[in-house]
Design goal:
447 residues; alpha/beta; Rossmann fold; 7-stranded parallel β-sheet; 18 helices; 42% helix
Length: 447
């Protein structure tokens, strides 16, 4: 398997960056992990550490096996607290330190371990770096401190460099490239960044900051071009398995659970692995009990299950020739790839664009095995049905439906992210809903 042109371009740019500090910001499933491993390999540096969330760590091990099989990798998949260090946990940590490539979670790091890792040198890789968007959290403080003190190459990965607010971008770039956008005024980090690039808004509570100033959007894009690389799934449509979103109409006189059971009974004859997703743990448990009666292996994953057993359950199901995965949305949003599932169902009659964005991002990936269909339950003639139809019709024509004037539009353009799926969902909602329906839909999403 060879790297695609966009990956080779990102790798070359990262190697040429001052200090080899680089942000890989490709959308989910576009090969960020493979890019970071290849940069590490080409640097000729043996040792290094990957800091990644629990659900992402097994994926890193598999990617090393694929792209750099001769590298010795150790992963610690438990999270000892700082106060309770058992002998087994110490032994696991010692095993990690003995290998050139070490994959750990942010929760494992304390002052002593940070010092040991920094003294070992090599490459520092931080996955899901948008965790640093809020600088006040304990995890953010640990990783920001490590990135600033590290003397070697620093490679960071995030599909969503702006999780919520524009300031999240500053906190990320200031961690990887300290002082690049100013040092702040002592009270407000990135004050010079705010003053130059963002619109000042005066309110009754004082000064607030809005969207990006139009006259500086191109400048910010230019400056970020020396720090990060980004490609979207839409740009890779020819390389990613086809992905469709289809509404599944549930008549008003039929119970949704019965409808889901009939749907599963039908698709199990034509699809190997099937995923059924829902919002609530109680719903997931009920659906898992129902589907287990169909005689196929059924795995339940929800937010109450620790991340390591969660990953083990999914890995075991993937080894089966067929089976059902029943999961809550919360569990799916935490670094779970669903590209190996052949048929998929969002078993909720009412959903918000944000939820659908989280689900859709788990399917179309470069490592996908087959065309994927995500069906979503809707009532006939409902707002959700019209949104699903509009979204599917426009899924691969995203550049034609960008809505000007949205709150994040300018900063998205600055990051070359005009085809964000969440933006497309918002556009689909506005295009098919009346004002009253749109307001009701937004209120439901907030709940």
């Amino acid at each position: 398997m060879k790297h695609l042109p966009h990956q080779l371009d990102a790798i070359d740019r990262a190697l040429a960056a001052p200090g080899q500090r680089w942000l890989f910001a490709d959308e989910m499933g576009c090969g960020k992990t493979a890019e970071a491993i290849e940069v590490w390999k080409r640097l000729g540096v043996e040792r290094g550490v990957v800091v990644a969330p629990a659900m992402a760590r097994p994926g890193w091990v598999k990617q090393f096996e694929q792209w750099w099989p001769e590298q010795q990798v150790a992963m610690i998949d438990m999270s000892p607290t700082r106060k309770t260090q058992t002998k087994a946990r110490r032994a696991s940590w010692d095993e990690v330190l003995s290998r050139p490539a070490r994959i750990v979670s942010p929760e494992l790091l304390n002052a002593e371990r940070e010092r040991v890792l920094l003294e070992a040198g090599g490459v520092l890789v931080i996955d899901e770096v948008h965790m640093l968007a809020n600088p006040s959290t304990k995890r953010s403080n640990v990783l920001r401190r490590m990135a600033k003190r590290h003397k070697g190459p620093v490679l960071v990965l995030s599909a969503t460099p702006i999780p919520n607010k524009v300031m999240g971008l500053f906190n990320i770039v200031d961690t990887v490239w300290p002082m690049r956008f100013g040092k702040g005024d002592g009270r407000r980090p990135g004050f010079s960044f705010l003053q130059r690039y963002l619109e000042r808004i005066y309110t009754v509570n004082g000064t607030d900051w809005g969207g990006l100033l139009d006259e500086y959007a191109e400048e910010l894009r230019y400056r970020l071009g020396f720090m990060m690389s980004r490609v979207t799934r839409a740009a890779l449509a020819g390389h990613i398995p086809q992905f469709q979103i289809k509404p599944l109409r549930v008549p008003g006189n039929i119970d949704p659970d019965t409808f889901v059971l009939d749907w599963a009974r039908e698709v199990m004859h034509e699809a190997k692995h099937v995923a059924v997703l829902t919002h609530r743990r109680a719903s997931a448990a009920r659906l898992a009990a129902m589907l287990s009666g169909l005689g196929r292996p059924t795995v339940l994953v929800d937010g109450s299950i620790p991340t390591t057993p969660r990953a083990a359950r999914i890995a075991a199901l993937r080894e089966q020739p067929a089976g059902f995965l029943v999961s809550t949305m919360h569990a799916v949003s935490e670094s779970i790839s669903l590209s190996w599932c052949h048929r998929n169902l969002l078993a909720e009659l009412y959903w918000s664009p944000k939820v659908l964005t989280q689900v859709a991002g788990r399917f179309p990936r470069l490592d996908g095995t087959a065309p994927t269909v995500l069906e979503i339950l809707v009532r006939p003639n409902s707002v959700e049905e019209r949104m699903a139809v509009a979204l599917n019709d426009r899924l691969w024509q995203i550049s034609q439906v960008t809505k000007e004037g949205e709150a994040e539009h300018d900063i998205r353009i600055a990051l070359n992210d005009e085809d964000d799926l969440e933006k497309l969902l918002a556009e689909a909602a506005f295009s098919v809903c009346s004002d009253e329906e749109a307001s009701l839909f937004d209120a439901m999403g907030e709940e």
